[in-house]
Amino acid sequence: MADDSILSVKNVSVEYLTESGRFAAIQNMNFDLGEGETLGLVGESGCGKSTTGRAILQLPRPTSGQVVFDSVDLTRIPQRDMRPIRRRLQIIFQDPVSSLNPRRKVKDIVAEPLVIAGVGTRSDRDAKVREVLSAVGVDPDISMDRRPHQFSGGQCQRICIARALILEPTLIVCDEPVSALDVSVQAQILNLLEDMKARYGLTLLFISHDLAVVKNISDRVAVMYLGKLCEIADSGRIYDSPAHPYTAGLIASIPVFDAGSSGRGERAVLAGEIPSPLSPPSGCRFRTRCRFAQQKCREEEPPLRQIDERHHVACHFPLLA
Amino acid sequence: MARFVQNLLRRPGPSGSESERAAQDARETTRSHQPWWTRVGLPFWLSLGWLVLIGLSAILADILPIDDPLSTNLDTLFMTPLSEGHLLGTDAVGRDMLSRAIHGARISLQLAFTAPFLSLLVGLVLGLSAGYFRGRVDTAVSIFTDSILAFPNIVGVMVILFFFGASLPVMILALAFFGIPAEVRVARANTILFSGREFVMAARALGASNLRIMVRELLPNVIVPMLSLVLFGMSIVIIIEGSLAFLGVGFPPPTPSWGKMIADGFEDISRAPHVTLVPAAVMFLTILSLNMIGDSLRALTDVKASSL
Amino acid sequence: MAYLRKRLLHLIPVFFLVTFASFTLVNLLPGDVVDAILADDQAANDPELRRQIKADLGLDKPLLVRYVVWLGDLSQGDLGRSYITGKKIGDLLVQRIPVTLQLMVMSLVFALLLAVPLGILSGYRSNRAIDRWISGGAFGIVAIPPFVTAILFIWVFAVLLDLLPAAGHAPMFFGVWQNLKYFILPMLAIGLSEVPIFLRVLRVDMITTLQEDYIALARAKGLSTPYILFRHALRPSLFTLVTVLGLQVGRLISGLVIVENVFALPGIGKLLIDAIDARDVLVVQAIVTFSAIAYVVINLTVDVLYAILDPRVSQRPGMA
Questions:
Q1: b/e map A253-288, b = 16+ CB within 10 Å
Q2: What ipTM was predicted for this assembly?
Q3: Model's pTM, two decimal places?
Q4: Which one of 3.40.50.300, 1.10.3720.10, 2.40.160.10, 1.10.1040.10 gives the CATH number of domain B111-307?
């Protein structure tokens, strides 16, 4: 894959021990992120998107595989060497209210990364906090001495973004950053992320269950199903000619605003229930909901293979453009 | 202390005119925007008033114009309350009940303001560790606290005083020891609750050490419900001290204690019930006030937690 | 049954910690244990007696060995002999246990008979006037220490009304009523102090249960309110109460000690205070051991009951 990649995730699996044995939240994940790129990671809830994002930050450390960030394998280095790297690797969570400690002031929350990294004096840090708060559109004069519950969800998310930006990181994992917000606020936050990306030269891993949200912000899109990668391709490509039946189904279920044209052809809307991740189906995990499933899908697990220059898919019978 | 609680409970009123606030404001109840002191009600203030009265009298007992609690007067036996010169009457040997009640408060309050805070301190450390690290630490802590619970608290304090000698420091430590499990339970439950919040994950992503996460992120959230428990701890301490003094075991105070006064009066209850009832009422009101304030604080902090 | 196994694995170390703690009590005595035992004895300087006591206590062996030997004796009911009265402590306990047990059972039954109907009513009419009165009353009762309740009962029922004896005990062979009338006031004193806790727990569970869909269904079917409350809502609301019963054993024992002494009932609690007054070290140790073991055993029983009552517990992982 790309040579200029800042992050590569290689064969990463995360397993949890439950009362009924081992359970793999994600299995053999593989993808790269180029510098300055935005990769959208989509899938239904419970498919392991968030686990993937957190595995990159070693929260917790993956059970197997490698996470290479700026040519350092994060899964191999001791915790103490991880700390300086964390300054360049940040995360924004889904629930902005829950992401901010209710008992701390905004200025302390936003300055916390600087304190942990041991950067600057108190007044240096205050100045820096003011700078980032202004950058994310929160008035520092009003907000610095307040506590999170005095802000709306959208503003809390801006504060979270300020906290993530203050150390001027290289990569930010955005874990469903707009899912908990009102639709009107979602667009504002997405625009803010775009602006910040340009201003600070960020690389983003943008996790969402909503393909429509991912569509505009991402350069490339990766689709996950039950802990595995199904398809990864450039954003335009994946929306125009999805190769995996699951991707096609997801795209077909995005609501469209042309009510008149109901006869737009057969829509491959997803049917059926997601199987339990505790006991995934044999062979191809999607086969129980796939209209094109055949005997081979039951017996053999499809590997992720390249079907075009920047297009990989894990399907025995990919849809043709 | 009051100032500290006030800071922790501060919940400022509506402010700001940011457009995004509107939606959030609509979701919050108007109730939660009233300042906390208007939401606690009259019983809270009556209780606080009573405790301040008792506390101040106890502190100022030596300079207040009251009789010596130990001076007997055989001319004034069993005077009923509201008698001249003896507001709360006198006991079997003519000692002034008001003075004795005030001096008796000293023992109770000394214990009430030390032991529960020691329990809080130990409970905080154990509960935070158990709730944060889970696994083996959690198991070890719960075996420890369950073992303490296996010794009934009054019996436990009694026996510790018996074996280690009866003195104020031993009594404080014994009372603190048996108060640990309750504080651990609250600290642990709240730590688990808040550990699941994403701000803890965010701190971890920043490379914060475990100690830093526990102290800076979790402790401020966990200590509030524990503080309301301290007030219940105070009333339990007063009950235990009273019970032990009544039974005449353990700690022999040189000055009167409420439990001892009740025990003394009990012998003459058919002749002069007020000698028993006065200290019993003082004790009742004090415990009731502590519970009332504890309950109000708990209700306030619950509202806070649920609206986050 | 994973839950039960987990609880058992938990209670075993608790058992050893608790017994070890009570075993160590005697060894923690400041100064020489023998001095403490012979504190008021004329023969304190008799070397033969001192050696005898040392050997009896096995003080010449290491602590852990002594603990194991002590546990072994304990398992056979051998708690040694009182150094004051010379009686076997095991016999002493066996003699006193029935009185304490009778008081405990009577108090619990009384507390439940009062708390369950009031709790149901309070939960059913939550935040109405009747609920406020019940909860307020409970709040007041919590603030009265059991020894004060006991005194007030003596004052009202024995002194003012002269209905019941103020103190004492009559064994069963004097007749059931003779026996019971000495237990009524102690029972009221302990039972009443337990009521508020049971009440509060049941009320909260009742409110939760009454919001369930199947209660709405039962109402829609036109079943009568009392039938719904007792037949449909009560059972699922009892689980917390059962757990609380186990956790309250410690509190209950404290109450028993105090009330037995106020009413001069010759139970374990009276024995404990008498032993403390007489500085009877081994009897004090034995009672502490006994009550700690009782706590562990009762909690284990509650866990078993709980698992039998509610098959869901074995699937609840986070229960502690």
A1: eeeeeeeeeeeeeeebebeeebeebeebbebbbbbb
A2: 0.85
A3: 0.83
A4: 1.10.3720.10
